[in-house]
Design brief:
Elements (H helix, E strand, L loop, with lengths): L1 H13 L2 H7 L4 E3 L10 E10 L10 E12 L2 H15 L3 E6 L2 E17 L4 E14 L1
Parallel strand pairs: 1-2
Antiparallel strand pairs: 2-3, 3-6, 4-5, 5-6
C-alpha cells in the first residue's frame, strides 16, 4: 500500500512542469539522496501511519504522514521547490488498485519548516503531507 503512495507522489511531481523546472527531471527518490546526485533534489518518506488497514481489517481508511524534503544550494530554490510541490500535491486525489482492492488516496498539506544542512552545505525544507487512504 505504501509503495503505491510513493509511486503516486513521484509520478505526480515528475508530471508537474513547474516542479520539474525547479527540481529537475527524475530528481526525487525515497528516503535518501543517492551518492553523486546533483542538486536540487527531493526525497520522501512515510513517517507515520494511523489506523493501519491490514488485510481482513474492518477499517475502511487510514492516515499516512509523508515528509517530502527538498534540497538545493540556494534558499530561493528550496522555497520554489516547496511552493511547487505544495501546489501540486495539496488537495490532490487519485484512485489506485492494489491486490484487487480499490483505494482513494487524498493528499493534503500540513506543515513546512526550513533549515541549513551544514555538512552538505545545502538548504532544505521539510514539507509534511497527510494522505487519507479510503477503501472503495
Amino acid at each position: 500500500m505504501f509503495a503505491e503512495i510513493g509511486k503516486i507522489l513521484v509520478t505526480r511531481l515528475n508530471a508537474d512542469n513547474d516542479f520539474i523546472a525547479v527540481n529537475g527531471v527524475r530528481q526525487i527518490s525515497p528516503v535518501r539522496i543517492p551518492q553523486n546526485a546533483n542538486y536540487p533534489y527531493s526525497i520522501y518518506e512515510i513517517i507515520d501511519v494511523d489506523n493501519f488497514m491490514s488485510k481482513g481489517s474492518s477499517l475502511d481508511s487510514c492516515n499516512v504522514s509523508i515528509r517530502l524534503a527538498t534540497f538545493a544550494e540556494t534558499y530561493n530554490t528550496t522555497y520554489n521547490q516547496a511552493k511547487t510541490a505544495i501546489n501540486s500535491l495539496d488537495l490532490y486525489s487519485e484512485t489506485y488498485t492494489e491486490d484487487g482492492q480499490a483505494y482513494l488516496a487524498k493528499f493534503s498539506f500540513e506543515s513546512l519548516s526550513d533549515e541549513y544542512h551544514n555538512s552538505a552545505e545545502v538548504f532544505y525544507k521539510n514539507i509534511n503531507f497527510n494522505c487519507l487512504i479510503i477503501k472503495n
